[in-house]
């Protein structure tokens, strides 16, 4: 009997059959994420309902030599939640309760399986706002958001998930339960372990509870969508808007990206075609704020940087304009894109993007490349679309070849090979482009402290 089989037998003694599933459909669904680049092969999926059960699972893994892959909403794009080698997937679908709200602290305590949109709706019900937001909000879970330090569309104003976490309960790879920071605003008592677990992709411990801070809701948000004359004017348009209004988001996408969205039946925002578009969301709670936004638009037109634009006049129109940006990923999903999620300093975006467009034109002449991103925080998303007549394995190999050129260039800019999707299995080979060997050695040492037996998410981040 293998160690994984022994682990499974021992688990079956602790969990009822309904919460330890081995049927093919459950294994397939919970053994993969959105990457679809690896074949899922878990031995079972466990559905704990309490912290005690999570601890018991981790301790059994240590006793038997078994391995665990944590699973949230599985919306990741780096194969961080993929089980490929007979591991037991630990799903937090049943640990999905909002445990409490503190009106004075403006904090909410949740289990890891709470869906991001559910938390957003709860925050609105108490007159507040949970600002971590992205297109997968209806599926992604809070535990996964924390494990990958999720960003999204409002980072420019509110920061990453890291800024929202005031307390964590974590079951380490040893099976110990840590209650970290306990919601304190100030706590100068040595190392803040929260920030090790945030973004650790389940390699140090399993997040079993989180206390998150909420904020005041935006004041009458409005969206301005602008068509730009070229990517070279992006930063001047950004600077002009940022000087005049309180930006919550500043997103960019190419005409090719927009074309795929419009092909699904949405209406074009205006008649004038443009090679690039930006979507800016800002507080429009006064006539002065709206007037300032219009001044920025008119100045852009005079400078021949802005070709056309539209300002939302209602909540319905604001949401419709957002769809032009947020529907990009779904509109190209059927083309099985190869994705990269990278970051450079905000000021470097136009120069880097121009260099990358030239690289892809030379290296990918037969491929369609879709660009979009959170330009206000320096994050670019690159999706290379697979030609219909090309075999999948040939396409992936070609993309991986060009990725080496991409990341080598990124290293010259001091950028990150993964802005908000983590490393997982997909980005693991490229970590050295963003982190020097000395840093990676420290990362390995930290992992050894919290998970000395290597039971948690094996093969992720580094071997």
UniProtKB/TrEMBL annotation:
The keyword Oxidoreductase applies. SUPFAM superfamilies: FAD-binding/transporter-associated domain-like (SSF56176), FAD-linked oxidases, C-terminal domain (SSF55103). Pfam families: FAD-oxidase_C, FAD_binding_4. GO terms for molecular function: FAD binding; oxidoreductase activity. GO terms for biological process: respiratory electron transport chain. InterPro entries: FAD-bd_oxidored_4_C, FAD-bd_PCMH, FAD-bd_PCMH-like_sf, FAD-bd_PCMH_sub2, FAD-linked_Oxase-like_C, FAD-oxidored/transferase_4, Oxid_FAD_bind_N, Vanillyl_alc_oxidase_C-sub2. Its cofactor is FAD. Keywords: FAD, Flavoprotein, Oxidoreductase. Residues 38-217 form the FAD-binding PCMH-type domain. PANTHER family: D-2-HYDROXYGLUTARATE DEHYDROGENASE, MITOCHONDRIAL. Belongs to the FAD-binding oxidoreductase/transferase type 4 family. This is FAD/FMN-containing dehydrogenase. It comes from Plasticicumulans acidivorans.
